[in-house]
Structures are given as C-alpha cells and as structure tokens.
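User: Large subunit GTPase 1 homolog, Capitella teleta:
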Amino acid sequence: MGKKKESGGIGRSLIKDRFGGGRKKKNDDSHLHTSELGDGYDWNRINLKSVTDENTLDEFLATAELAGTEFTAEKLNVKFVSVDNNGGLLNTEEEEKVNQIQSDHKTLLTVPRRPEWDEFTTAAELDRKEKDSFLDWRRQLAELQDIEGLVLTPFEKNIEFWRQLWRVIERSDVVVQIVDARNPLLFRCEDLERYVKEVNEEKENLILVNKADFLSDEQRQKWVEYFDSIGIYVAFWSARLEAEKTEVNEEEDEEEGVEEEEVEKELENPSRNLVEETAERLEDLNVKEDKTEATSPAETTDKKASGGLGMKNTPDLLDADGLIALFRNLFHGKNYTSGVTTIGLVGYPNVGKSSTINTIIKAKKVAVSATPGKTKHFQTIYLDTDLLLCDCPGLVMPTFVMTKAHMVLNGILPVDQMRDYAAPTALLCKQIGRSVLEGTYGIMLPAPPEGEDENRPATAHEFLGAHACMRGYMTHKGIPDFRQSSVQVLKDYTNGKLLYCQPPPGVSDEQFKAVTVPEKFSAKVDKINQNKATGQPKPRSQAFDTRFFVKRDVHAGTMGVKGVVGYTRTEGFTKHCTMEGGAQAPTPGMTAVNPKPWKRHNNRKKKEKLRRLHRDLDA
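Assistant: Predicted structure for Large subunit GTPase 1 homolog:
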C-alpha cells in the first residue's frame, strides 16, 4: 500500500503565492507578449460611458484612479428613515430648514472649469491639469454632500463628458440651456451661465423651455416676468407639438401635389372642356399658398427679434421658423467662426436637445433615444451658411433637490430602476389632488380615518391599493401589486397624463394653477368636486354612536324571529326591519325581500371578484 498523500490545502497555496513557488500565473500582465496587450485601436479610444449613479465601491475606485494615489477611506452617509414619515418625505418645517441650508451653500454649487492653457502647453500637461482640476471639484462637492440636509442630483462623474462641454462653450456664440417646462429651475444651471461669461463676456445665454405646450398662456407669462426680473433671455418651444405640425403639413403638401397633378392631366386632355374649371382650381391653390406665406410666423418672430440685444421676452410659443430667427438675431458680437453664428445646445438627458434639432431641420440627422447618454460626442449641424448648431452630450449637472423622490418624478432617475416606490408615489399624491386622481383613473380612494383631515392628500398605500385593484394588478397570492401599479402611475406623470407644473418663486400653486386636468378627464373631476361640495355626508362620530348604542333585543342561543331585532309578524303582513333601525309600522300588502333573515347563506362569496374578497387590505 503506497504512502498516503499529504493534503497541503490552502496553506501550501498561500506559501506558493507569497514566495514564488510553482508555475507562473497565466493572467499576470507582466508576462504577456506585446501582441497580447490592448494597444491597438481600442487602447486610445475615449471612454465616453456616462457615469451618474454609482455605488460606494465604484465611486471609491474611480476617485482613487483619477487621483493616481493610494486608496483612502471615505465616510459613508447613512440615514435611517422612519416608516411613519410617509415614505421619507419632508414635512413643512423640514422643507423650510432644507431651503435655508440650500440658499446658504448655493455659491458652492459649481461646474468644473477647464484650466488655462496656451500653445506651449503639451497634451500630457493639459491632461494632468484637467484631471487635477476635476478632482478638486469632486472633492468640493463631496464636502458639500457631507453637510446634513443637502441632497445633490447624481451628477456626471466622467471627465470626458465635461471635456465635451468645455469645447462646446468655447466655440459657441450663444449657449442654450434646454429645460423642462414643468420644472425649469431644476434643470437650469446658474453657474454654467457664469462660466460662459468667464470664457467670453460677449457670449450670450438663453433658456429654451421645451414642452411649453404643457403651460397655459397665463403660466408662461408668469415665467416671463420672473426671467425678466433676473435679466435672462427665455423662449418657449415644444418639439413634440412642432413635430406633429410638420407631419400634418407634409400630408397636406402630398395631397396638394396629387391635386395639382390631376389638374395638369385635365389641362393636357383636349377632349375634356374643363379648361376654365381647372384654371379656377389652380388659382385657388395659389391663393392658399399666398395666404400661408403671408401668415408665416417667421416674419412675426423676425420683427420681435429684430431688436437684437434689446429684445423683450414674450410668452408666445415659437415654431421652428421662429426659433431659427431667434437664434440668428440673438448674437451681435464677434463670432468664434467668422461669418457663422454658432448655437451650443446644453441640457440634461431627455430634455429634448436631439428632438429639437430634428424638428428644426425637419430631418432625422441626430440619433434620438429615450436612454440617457445616447449622444456621445458633440455634433455640429449647419442650418444655413451663417447658422451652425452644436449639440453637446446630455449632462446631469449638480443641483440641490429635496429628496430622491423628486429626481424620480422629474425624470432625472429612470422609473424602471427605482428601488423605493413609496416615496415618489407619496410625493405625486401630495402634488395631485384626490379628485384629480379619482377622475383620471376612475377609482374611489378610501376616506381618511376619523380624527384626520378629510381634505388631506391620499397616502401611497391608499392610492396604489385602489389603482391596483381597479387595474387588476395582483400578485399570485391575491395581494395588490403596489410596485407594478406605481411604475405605471409614475410613467403617466413623466409623460404628462398627470400634469403638475412647478410655479416660479414667489407664486403659490393656487395662483399658478399648478395642477392641470386633461380635457377628457375634466368632466369627471368637476363632477367629483361638485358632489363633494354639495353633498352633506353624515358625521362619522354620529354614525359610530348609532351603531354602538343601538338597543338590541338579542337572546343567546336563539334562532328564528327572537334573534332578529325589531322583527314583527302579524296576520296578513310580513315585516323585516334592519339590525340597527327601529321597527316600522307594517303596511297592507307589504312583502319582505328576505322573509327569514336569521338564515345565513354561506355560499354567497363564491361568485364575488377576487378584489372584493381582499378589500380589507385596501384600508
């Protein structure tokens, strides 16, 4: 029998790794052949992967790699959220405190600057300067995040995206920030406007409010008054509405082209005596074209924008021709490119930069996608010989927000990737009234319990429970699927089906009419509000007292008429009174619906729907 083989186990493996025993590792990069190194085309490619929301480990490793030093420990911010805090939302006192802290540290909220350089600066020196400047900016924001009560958006952490922004600002004559009309100030970066002036004092800033069709004329006027007070140019625009108009005009042009071809064929046919008729039809077509040219909005916008730097902000909704005229007449200084006005488009992902360009040029020359970060490099597109558009990749810039739920509702964080659905839904219910939710989705929200305000907003649990039961979103155990319901509702909010528009500073929600009801749901909402205003529901305390103090004549262990309160039987009459009501005088010829109320039918729930069996979970 041979010698038993000793099992070295993990100890022998550790000794080999430490003292070099055994064969060389196959994965050791120091022993790779030069042909196996990745020094080809992919080695020098720019890393343009958008980095906004990182976990703690990834952020730690990226910071250490950017600094080029050894790893250093970083403090973690841990916050315990109470269950009774309505999903982590802040109350009125906490919101006032956070607003004060944000205003005190507003000057520290900046964007990274490109360091100074000249023709004698080498590429390696410039790269090191840019990384050092970017690292200092990251450290400043990290210190800002350590302040209790401050929450920042998950800003872009890849320096390559900021290098694209630096190039766009340097070569643009007008820098346009495209913002969402439902919350313009959240997507506006004030420090970016200051940085544009630092690069060149002659450069101009413009706030382009996209999706402005969500706002009424009065709401746009209030925003114009606010931007006039701070001295910022603003324009209102809707890429979606303009795209629909373009499709309609193309269809009309095709129909007119077919009609003109038919008229020409009729004129060429000598056998038909329709010369006068066809001539009249051609004249009508020419009259329509003249009217269209006479009422072109481009001329109107040219008159409004003819003042150049002295132009006045207007609440009008611009079309494509009007927006091009505004771009052409806004800048009157020395161009970066001689004879060409360059317009730089900057903004958050999914605010509509690429859609705006596609609508303006009436052709798809820029890739459009609902995924943030689709545009990787800045792109230049000539609209005319004297007008150039420069599209910058979407950048999530650092901005103060109240909670993470605000980022989900405003589309900064994707709805499909959210981990907590209670807080965004609770904020949605806080902004949208109960009657609007009931009229939009055709549901009936449970009334608040006794002792609470009857006009308070619905909780996330109440709203999602009613919505899930009505839509049939159920788990395999028959429990309402709150997450599936919340995803559907939050997407309706981001798409504009549930419309809430943030008012400008100094204007309340009531004055601004922040909540707008779609036309197809307005009749239902008005009816619900009217019923609540005219109806006089019975006080809950009175109903509770009636049920509690009712006199019951019930004998233990009895069946039949003795077990029913107020049940009387007379000759020729049959009377059945309710359990809580008093006995009513019998009327001749009266018959009972249930002549034997003491009998219980246990098979009554067999045909009921599943959501009725679990209605106790909606409370």
